[in-house]
Amino acid sequence: MPTSVVKAVVDAASTAAGSPSPIAQTIDLLGDRLTVSILREAFVDHVRRFSQWIDLTGAPPAVLTSRLNALVEAGLMVREPRSAGLDRHDYLLTDLGLATWEFLVSVWSWQREWSPEGSLQPDLVHLDCGHRGPPELMCRHCSRTIKLRDTYLEMDPSSLVVAGRSGRRRSTRNTAELPRADLQFTEVMEAIGDRWSALVTGLALSGVSRFGEFQSILKISPTTLTERLMRLTSVQMLTRGSGEREYALTPRGRALFPIFAFQLAWTDLAHPNTDGLGLVVRHRDCDSPSLAPAFRCRGCDRVMTRTSLHFEATPLT
Question: What is the pTM assigned to this prediction?
Fold first, then answer.
């Protein structure tokens, strides 16, 4: 029996055919390596100028322009005209852009612990107590610490099909190469960097393990599913199970759970007028209608806020 149980919600509201899927929009936006790098630099180093992002990421100007335009169109940034200087605008985070901070911290936490370049990541410091290091995931409703095994997913399967098929899909393999190793997010993007990979990983986190189950829920072609499973296996997010065409999450795969929890929470915030996303993560030990994830400092047990933390570069040795 899987640690997380998948339930089909018969009357759950699904995204209308042909309409943009909120979940797909989030994957397209926050599953892009350069976009995550732009947001990271805006948070960590308060970058706001085009030329600064060019220097820090090494992205081609046309590609960087495209990503900044997408962030503006999605409401995460606004352009502010500058009175002088080579750059014509500053790009400032909006409230919706600032609300991605927990997603970014969850990506940082995974990178710090599970990626080869983890030692290059800056230290996360909780200003209230001075504690350094990854926080722990908690439920905002009941204040309990949460692990993957403490949750289950309720879903309307049709919403996942819409998310996989609606609009454009982008592969992480076409993303601009970024020269700084601490910004590459290479392995984590195999799990969250395109729609099918993200949906397969999300289902694996919910307890799905068999090839046929993935295919039946997502209505995905066998070739596409095989390719995504091979990718996730190659970066050790999944491992082949004991049964034929069966897959199990590895520890580094299970560690992706906070990323998905905060992605889903942010999607709900970014699309307040959507009548249900078709996906709900529930906390087994809590009466709340859905999981409200938050971060708690391991040093002082306080709930962490965006303004109570900062990243501090680690000295080079």
Answer: 0.87
